[in-house]
Amino acid sequence: MRIARPRYDKDSCYYHVFNRVSGEPGWYPFGEVEREAMFKLLRQLNRLYALEIVSFVAMGNHFHAVVRAPGDLPSVEEVDRRFKAYYGNSREVPDWTVGDNYEHYARRMRDMSALMKDFQQQYTNWFNRTRPKGRRGRLWADRFKSVILESGRAVWECLQYVEMNPVRAGLVADPAAYRHSTWGMLCGSGRHPFGVALADHLPP
Q1: Taking a C-beta distance cutoff of 8 angstroms, is the pair 175, 48 a contact?
Q2: Is the preceding peptide bond at 132 cis, omega within 30 degrees of 0?
Q3: pLDDT digit string, tens, across residues 190-199
Q4: Which of 32, 142, 177, 183 is most enclosed, with most CB atoms within 10 A?
Q5: pTM
Q6: Which residue, among 16, 69, 14, 35, has the nearest Cα to 181 in the 3D structure?
Q7: What's the rounded Cα separation, in Å, for the pair 109 and 123?
């Protein structure tokens, strides 16, 4: 029986989210192309979801993320804008005044579990289709894990932990030199890959 994930809907909330691949220890399927594909997919999903991907690191066989869920549901205008930005002309825009159309999408757009479910399923579909061709079966070891971060200090410490993963793995000496992380991309380009104002999430 699956146990419901902890969630907090009364105010904004930060989550530390992570998962790793299934299979034998020592399997590292995510190279340069695969890690870049993770960021590309997250950018696409970032159009739909009203969540802030504050930090993300793609490693050789796992990922870590810090995600902020807003306290309030997005407005009708924001739901409409995000729906159109993500689906374009491929799906008819619902009438937001009919039934529970607005509430259904508004709740989904601030649901961290829905974001990560879409990310893992869509990434698995891409991976199985292309690397190697015709691969079948699950890619991830299990459902993703998530931990609620309860304070500004906890968020700051988790951000450091996530962004230091490549250093602990011996891949780089400086986290700014790692290409497949939010910090590395921010230092390299001056822009956060998901458009987050990072300073807003750091302790004063």
Answers
A1: no
A2: yes
A3: 999 999 999 8
A4: 183
A5: 0.91
A6: 35
A7: 19
